[in-house]
Amino acid sequence: MSDLDPHAAPAEHASAPPPAAVHSDMSDGEWHRMHPLSPLLRGGLTLIVIIGILVANLRDRLIAFFLPENFRWDEEDPVDFVLQNGIAVQAIVVVVVGLVVLLAIFWTAWRFHTFRITGDEVEVRSGVLFRTHRRAPLDRVQGVNLTRPALARLVGLAKLEVVGAGLDANVKLEYLSTRNAETVRGDILRLASGHRAKDAAARPAAADGRLSSRVSAGLSEIVDGVDDDGAEPESIVRVPMSRLILAGLLSGSTIWFVLIVVAVIVGLVLQPVWIIPALGASVPAAIGFGTYAIRQFIKTVRYSIAPSSAGVRITFGLLTTVTETLPPGRVHAVDIRQPLLWRWGGWYRIRVNKLSGRSASDASAAQMGDVLPIGTQADVERVLRLLLPSLHIDAPLLDAGLRGPRDGDGYLTSPARARVIDPLTWRRNGILVLPQAVLMRTGRLWPKLTILPLARLQSVRISQGPLARRLGLAALTGHTVMGPVSGTIESLDHEQAYAQWNAITAAAVAEASAESSSSTDGGERNAVEVEWPEAAPSLTPPEAPVSSARPAWAPPAPPAPPAEDR
Amino acid sequence: MTTSPDPRNPATGSPTPIDETFTSILEPRGSSRLPLGDGQWRQLSRKYVIGQIVGYLVLMVLAAAAVLTLWLMFEATWPFIPGAIMFAVALVALVVTPRQARSIGYQLREDDLVFRRGILWQRMVSVPYGRLQLVDITHGPLDRMLGIAQLKLVTAAASTGVTIPGLPQADAEQLRDTLIEVAETRRTGL
After folding, report:
1. Total structural domains within chain B
2. Does B39 contact chain A (CB < 8 Å)?
3. Looking at beta carbons, which pairs linking B106-110 to residues 24 or more positions away fall under 8 Å?
4. Same structural domain for residues B110 and B179?
């Protein structure tokens, strides 16, 4: 399966990654094929099923079309029919030819679907008539997802999705054997984060023992990716099954469901005539809700989050197992919420904004909503430390954010005159600007804390409507990449909000230039960039000496190594 | 171009004669409005209002023509309702546009671009230069006739939404070049 591709012209031979940095034979800078079973999993099975359904439904017409008039079809089993009419040979020939054609199609598709990993990018070529060629530059890689759909797991395959920065910028390697997929993922992440030198030393000891253990682990093994240190990282959060079930039962959608059921019952007691339409409407709704709840449950079961040298590794899913690796510094916004009834257990959930690289139409199941589906305050603290290593989050800070206000917590809160429009939350509404991030807290019944890392903040807005102007209030919004998290804080004093708006913008500029000047550990790519200031010295602003030290003009700065405090 | 763009201090130098653009920001009344801050605001071309008014008038004429056609040919009276609504909306827009145009402004500060707009609903967005992904200039046929252009700033966040309409053509091009230069020296990773 790792034979060389005959289509690879010698002219486009690219630089192979340094052998010390890669563990897999497949990441040697040459073209490789996917696993031979890939076409079957990538839609081949669907094709067979569709053909089967078509034949089953249209067989009368097919037979009438292909056979002469005198053949009568009398609703019998097709095998009996074939035997009775003495056309067994023809039937077998047709079936065999059909199979051969199908196999030929699969084989050609497989032959033409190749990928390679060079020192600079990951490339995939596919298609027979319409060739497509996708590249993901390694310095833009936002993460690598390893997905194992239920069917692929049975045959020991997995697919990799290299997440790029941009809409529909992902490169998918479908499918590789699980072991290859894991080593290739490790290679891509390592190449992307420019860890080459460090890794070369630690490599030989780690490789062999892991390989043999993986082979023996077999099909039922829980996915855990290749860790560069050889040791399996342990999940820092345990989510007991009972808590997961309870949380599902206490979630917002359940409350709505119960309310609707009660409303329907009350309505029926008052107006029994409507029983038929009511049942007709609520049965599909109930089924829909049930599938939703079960799907949510299946997705969050077997959740684990662990640090690895390439970033934060999150695994989840019962049937389709997905392993996402989020390199450090790729978290654009974090939001911690507590649905109304979760207060009883003191649970929270964490969601993040990140670049997913998917097109808007790609609604694949391997989409992760929550970084932490449910956890206690201590869990939240641990996960936040992992996600935002540069932000020093300690218990009092988190406590003030989640349950504040506390005395002397430093938050700038709404003035008392905001009571008119925010009777419940005005005391809690608050914003805190730290050197690395902005914290926004709001909500009393539905507490919410949003953390926007300043280095990733795209723009800041201050706004004021007519009512807010009357009261002397204003709202602040931080803009980040698309995602479930949005950072807005309403009803601040307008002058303080204006000062904060300026402060946040200044801090965002400072933090970004500080980050790009500290992450100089990026491998060879920096050699190109160093020449820039000499080429255009007058363009470098004297006010920002940090950025002139290393202007990250072309590729975004390579991610800072996790160990290093940037 | 009378002055060359100076990326060290982008706030200086505009190639357009000062009387071609609006000269003062129209602010909401009331003491608790958002402050304008220091620095010089640069504003839209006066021709932007002409362009908008012509646009709305054309829209009104087209709507009236459609309604009249339907009425005269098919004796349908219902198109008068949507027609009247459209007419009213366009009329309000016609009244508001000249004021609104004067409320739009931008400022090139040391590290970021500030865009403001709105009187009743005031908002200001600050975009650090390093976050700019690309700068778009568009001008339609009418814009070209009037010599104005629309500038759109794109960051990685879709919600940034900074679109400066009706800039004098030379201003827009100079601003684009300046922004791209400054953005390149300060580009940050995603």
Report:
1. 2
2. no
3. B106/B41, B106/B42, B106/B164, B107/B11, B107/B37, B107/B39, B107/B40, B107/B41, B107/B42, B108/B10, B108/B11, B108/B42, B108/B175, B108/B178, B109/B11, B109/B39, B110/A541, B110/A543, B110/B9
4. yes
Could you give the residue ranges of the DSSP H alpha helices within A70-112?
A: 78-85, 88-112
SS3 (DSSP) at B112 = strand
Cβ pairs bridging A and B (under 8 Å): 152
B139 and B174 within one domain:
yes
B144 & B166 share domain: yes
A481 phi and psi angles, rounded to 5 deg = -65, 165
Element housing A263 (H / E): helix A252-270
**Boundary residue ending a domain (B82, B98, B114):** B98
Q: What is the CATH number of the domain that holds B172?
A: 2.30.29
Which chain B residues are Cβ-neighbours of A547 within 8 angstroms?
A: 130, 185-186
pLDDT(A64) > 70: no
Cβ separation A506–B158 shorter than 8 A: no
Amino acid at A5: D
Q: Do A515 and B189 touch (CB under 8 A)?
A: yes
Position B37 in a domain: no
Residues whose CB falls within 8 Å of the CB of residue A213, separated by 6 or more in sequence, listed in order: none
- Enter the DSSP assignment of A555: S
| Contact by Cβ (8 Å): A341, A373 | no
Distance CA B45, CA B52 (A): 12
End-of-domain residue from the set B72, B98, B124: B98
How close A23 comes to chain B (CA, Å)? 28
- Domain extent, residue B138, equals 106-185
- Of A167, A184, A39, A53, nearest to A113 by C-alpha is A39
**How far does A535 lie from chain B, in Å, by closest CA?**
11
CB contact at 8 A, A446 and A339: yes
Residue A542 CA to chain centroid, in angstroms?
Answer: 40
Tell me the ipTM for this assembly: 0.86
pLDDT tens per residue across span A203-258: 343 333 343 333 333 322 333 333 443 445 678 888 888 888 888 888 777 888 88
Question: Is B35 within the bounds of a domain?
Answer: no
Residues of B in contact with A471 (CB under 8 A): 32
With contact defined as beta carbons under 8 Å apart, do A334 and A454 qualify?
no
In a domain, B14, yes or no: no
pLDDT digits (tens, 9 = 90+) for A284-312: 888 888 888 888 788 778 888 888 877 78
- Whole-model pTM? 0.73
- What is the band of A550 on the pLDDT scale with cuts at 50, 70, 90? very low
B81 and B150, same domain (yes or no): no
Both structure tokens of A332 = 């654009």
Residues B117 and B69 in one domain: no
Measure the CA–CA gap between A372 and A129, rounded to whole angstroms: 44
Contacts of A187 (CB under 8 A, 6+ apart): A17, A21, A22, A23, A24, A27, A117
Extract the tokens encoding B22.
């609006």
Tokens coding A392:
């020093």
- Residues B78 and B129 placed together within one structural domain of the fold: no
| Residues in Cβ contact with A406 at an 8 Å cutoff, skipping those fewer than 6 apart | A396, A399, A400
Of A404, A391, A398, residue with least CA distance to A511: A391
Give domain status of residue B60, yes or no: yes
In this structure, the strands spanning A430-433 and A437-442 are: antiparallel
Are B112 and B148 in a shared domain? yes
What digits encode the pLDDT tens for the residues A167-210? 677 888 888 888 888 888 888 888 877 643 333 334 343 333 34
Residues B91, B123 share a domain = no
